[in-house]
C-alpha cells in the first residue's frame, strides 16, 4: 500500500515539480539550474542560502518560490537592530487572562524568507539555529513545533560588502545549499526589461501546488534508493575536504547527510528512484562550498572554496567496483567476476 | 565434469599424445609413466588453483613451482633442501644432469638408453610443454595457440626419430590436439547454447541440440583437416634438407651411412658434418715413434652386435690407473716398442672418448676421465670432453710376426663366447660368404688375412661414400652383394664375418694416423675419421686389420705377397723395408683423392664418432629449447594483443542467467567499453561517473549516433547494476560494445587503429595488477615480520 503510494507520488513529483519550476521560471529568467537547485533543497527538507551581489534577483527567487506554493510565507528583513525575539516570537503578559501569551515570531511560517541575513548581528542570526535544524522554537521553556514543510530561504550579500556580519560557521552549516544567481545573459536581461517594465510579474504568480502536496513529495524523496557506492562516494568527497591542505575547516557529517538528501531529491526530480554519483557531483559545490573555510594562504592565493570542491571532485574516484547491496557477491557470479583479468578500478 | 576440468584433462592428454612421439627416441619407455604422473599432478594443481581462483599468472606460477618440486623430488632429492625444496644446489645439479643428458644424446644412437640426464630431459620437456599447453588452453582458455607448444614437441621428436612409422605419432599428436580443440569448442558452444537456448522452460532439448550440431561440424572439419595433412605431403616433393633433416641424418641411417650398419653405431649416429667441405683439423700430435703409419688413434670399440648395429657395450668404468695393465692376450714373446705421443685436440673438438693409440699403457691428462678396462678407452665424466686438451699417451706398438699370429692358440672361452656372438637375424649369406672366402685356410690368422684381402683387394669392392645400403639386418647382405660402401661397412662386415668364423672380433672407431707435417708433428683432420675391425689372437691380443680399400694402412703382419695359403712369413723381413711411409701418405692421399666420392661417408662416419657433441649439429634437445625459445620470442611482442583479445572474449563471453551473473557481465561490458576507448586513446578517468564517461567517449571519439547510443546503453545498464535497487536487465550489451568498437575504429586514423590492435594501452592494467600484488605481498610480509618482532617483546613485558 505504502509502496504503491510512494510510487505514485514519485511520478506526481516530477509533474508537480515541473509546475512549480515553470512557475518560478516565469519570474527568474534564464537560470534553470538555480531554480532546480531551489526545488531540490525544498524537496530535501533543507534550507537555501542565496548569495550574490545586490540586484540580481535573490529576493525575487525566494518570493517566487514561496508564491508558487500555496503555503504560509513570512519575510524577515534582517537589519543590524533586529532582535532575536523578532524572529522567534515573544511571551507577553495578557492582562485579561492573567497569563503569558505567546506571540509567534516571523519564523512561524512554512516558507521563511530571510532577506539580507548577514546584515543582522550574530546574536540575531543565531536565533535561527534551533528552528532551522530542529524545526521547533523554544521560548521560556516551552517548545513550539514549526509547520511542515518548513524552509528558510535566506539571501545575503557577499561578506566583502559594507555593513555585513559574516554568518557564523554553525549557521552556515545549517543551510543545505548555497546558490549564486549571477548576472543574467544579455538576452535574458532584455527579456527581463520587457516583463518587469510594467507590473511586477510576482503579482501575477498563482500558487501551483499546495503545501500538503509538497509534504507528500518530501516523503517520496525519502524513499529514493541510495546504493552503497554512492554513499561511499559522498563520504569520500566530504572526507577529502577535511584533509585538504587549502582548507582550514572541512565539511561536517551534517554536510554528508545534506549531500545525500539533496542527491535523493535531485534523483527524484529526474524521475529516478535511485541516486547516482552524477547527482552527488552536480550538487557537491552547492552543498559543500559554503561550509568550507579556506586557509589564509589559500585566500591569499585567491583560491575559493568552490575551486577546492571542484578539484576534489576531479581527484576522487567514483566507486564503481561494487560490493553492492544484494549483490554480486554470491556464488558463481563472484567467481566469474573474480576471474576477469583486471579486477580493479 | 565441468567444462574447465574436461579441458584440463584434454590438455594433459594432448600433451601426452604428442609426447608419444618421443617414445622411439629412448628405450626403455619408463620415463613416459613418470612424465604422465608429473603431468597429472601438474594438471591437478592447475585445476585446484583455478578453483580458488588465483590470478592466472599465479596459477601458472603455482603449477610451475609444484612441478619443479616434483622434479626435484624425482631427480635431485639428495641435493634438495629437506628433500623437496629446490635450492641453488639443485639447479646446479639439474644443469649437470642436462649436460650429461645432452652428452648422452650425442653419444648414443636411437633408441638411446635411459640415463638420468636423458630422463630429466624427456620428463622435463614433456612437463614444460604440458604446462604451456595447460596455461594456454585452460588457464587462458584459448586452445588454438596451444597447438604451438604441441607442435614444437612433436616436431622435435619427429625430426630426430627415424622417419619410419612417424605417421602414427603424428596421428596421435594430431588427435590429441583435435580433442583439445573439440573440448574447448564444446565448452564454448555449450555456453552459447545456454544463453541463447531460450528460457528455462526448454532447457533440455534446445541447448543440447544447438551445442551438438557445431561440435559435429567441428569433428568433421578436424577429420578432413587431418586427412588432408596426411595425404598432401605424399603428393608433394619430399621436404628433405631442412633443419630437422640434418638432425635426422645425424640420428639415423642418414645418407645411407652404412645403412643398418652405421645406424648401429652410436658414434655414427652423431655424424654432424658428413659432408665437410673443408678438412678441419681435429688434433695434432707429436710422437717419438719413427713410424706413424700404425698409429691409429682409437676412440672407442664397438663390441656388441645386435644384427643391425654395432654398439659399445655398457661396461663398468673405474678411475684411471697410473699405468694400464698389460693388454689382454699380449704374450711376452711378441715384439713391442713403447712410444710416447703428445696429442693436442682442437678447441672445437668435443669428444667424450679420448683418442689414443692402441694399446695405451699410460696416459697423462687433466680433467675428469674414467677408464674402461675392457676396451682400454678413457671416457669423460660429467661432461668432460677433449675440447682443447693436451695430453700425453704412452702406448705400445705391437709387432707380431705372422707365425705368432698363425700359431695363436684358442682364445679363452669367456672372451670367445662374448666376441663371437652374432644375432640370429644375421643373414646366412654372411657366414656362407665368410666360409667361401676363407676356404682352405689352415688357421684363424689365414682366415682373417683372406677376409681382409678379399675386401681390400680381391673381392672387387669399391669405396663409395654415397651408397644406399639401407638399414636393418639385411644391410650387410646387401653390402656383400653390391660390393660398395665405406669404412663403416667394411669394418662391420669383416667383423661380423670373422665372428661367424669363430674369431673374436670387434670394431674400433677413431682416426687414421693423419698427415705428417714439416715440423715433425702430424695433423689429423675430420676426413681421417675411420672405422676398422679388431680381431683377437691369443698371445697377441686385439689386432688391427684394414679391410677398407684405399683407406689407412694395411698392417704389416697381414701383408702377403701372394694371397695364397702360405703363411705370411716373408712379410716379416719385408716389414721394415716396406715401411709404410710410402704406404701411409699414399693411403691418406688416396683417401683425399677419393674424397669427392669417398670421404663424405668415411669422414662423416668417423667424424660422427669424432665429433661427439660438437657445435656443428645441434642435438635434438637443443632444437627443442631453441624451438621453444623461438616461440617465446615470437609471442612476446604479441602478448598485449593476445591478452587484450582474451580479455575481450572473457568480458563479452557467455555468462549465467542469475542476477549476479548478469550484473557481472554488465560490469565486464563496461570495463570493456572503457578499455576499448582507452586503447583508442581516450584514457579512463576514475573520477567520472559512467554517464559522464560515456558522454566523454562519445564526444572525444566522434562516435556516430548509433555507436553513441550503444555506449550510453551500456552506461545506463551499469548505472542500473551499480545504483538501482532493482536493476533492470539489459540485453545485447556485447553487441553494443562491438558497435562502439566499430564506431571508434571508423573515426580513428590508421596509426591509432594499429596501435589499438597491437599495443593496446589498456594492457597496462596487467602491470598494475602485478605491482599491486607485489605491494600487497610486501606489506603482508612486513606486517607478519612486525608481528614476529613484536611477539617476543610482548612476552618480555
TrEMBL record, chain A:
Similarity section: Belongs to the MoxR family.
An example Gene Ontology molecular-function term: ATP hydrolysis activity
Database matches in InterPro entries: ATPase_AAA-3, CbbQ/NirQ/NorQ/GpvN, ChlI/MoxR_AAA_lid, P-loop_NTPase
Keywords, alphabetical: ATP-binding, Nucleotide-binding
Signal peptide: none
Protein name: MoxR family ATPase
Domain ATPase AAA-3: 47-176
Region (Disordered): 321-345
One Pfam family hit: AAA_lid_2
ChlI/MoxR AAA lid domain sequence ranges: 240-310
Domain of life: Bacteria
